[in-house]
Amino acid sequence: TAPEGWHLRGLLHLDDPEKAEGYFAEAQAQDPAFHAAILARARVLLRLKQSSGAAWLMRCVLDQAPDLAAAHLLLAHALLEQRRPDEARVHLHRVLRQPRQRKDGAIWNLLSIALQAKERHRSARLAARRACRLAPNSPDVLRHAATVALEGGEPGLAIDLCRRLLDIAPREAAAQALAAFVFQAAGHLRDAERHAELAVAIAPDRSESWRSLGHVRHHQNRLAEAEEALHQAHRIDPGRSDVLRQLTWVLAADDRLAEALIATDKACEAAPEEALCWQQRGDLLGMAGRHDDAIAAVRRALEIQPNADAPAADAKVLLARLLAEQAQGA
User: Is 140 buried (19+), middle (13-18) or exposed (0-12) by CB count in 10 A?
Assistant: First the structure.
């Protein structure tokens, strides 16, 4: 069978990603310059959560075709999965130098995700708004724009974006989970609870579904149920630092500071490059009276994100408080 035949077989078996990947790999083996098959293989590897393999394939393609926009975008996807947003931005900016690519909302959406990962919220909001203008009916774009609005303290805008998203994708678990966070932030706990429960009903195998339910239960002061939901989220995806950070606050609210410290330590181990993990660790260590360790943790957060918008300001306020408490105790 010619490479084109293996490529076609892969396209016909996309519902079985492992089989499809094998067909695309055979097409690549027969013709290492068959970029369409290699790009398709990388997309399947990303679906299979094999970002390292996808990144390697895209670098091979870019060695042959340095200006191929699709390869740069897939590599950016893979790098974001690997929590390497700065490297992802390099490839996204290279694509955006091509005039016709500047009208693609999906690219601006990816750029906003990369900026948000570095906690550059102002720049992320601008990129997200441009993505919404260019792709107003894209669930991916609307989902991320709502997240950016929520984290930027704009719950009204986040609700509007969520409603548009739910009109387009009412059976998408990720949309329901996001709606739970957004409606909770706006003070609509009943709506938040309904959306979180829907997310779990639609996709009980998704960590984000349980994380949203844990978040809502926390704010309902149903701490045992919040803890149970977050433990389930952690079992599904043990590497998620955001789940561990939420669990930390639930345990702290339940006056279980020793267990909260274990959870925040695990969050820092899972994502040592995330400033919010270290900032939370500093806050918890301060509660425990371990001011030297707390100050070191917050300084670590500021080393990671010295120029972030709100997070850096919050960390500086926390550091000042910890230094004052340390001086009072001396």
Answer: middle
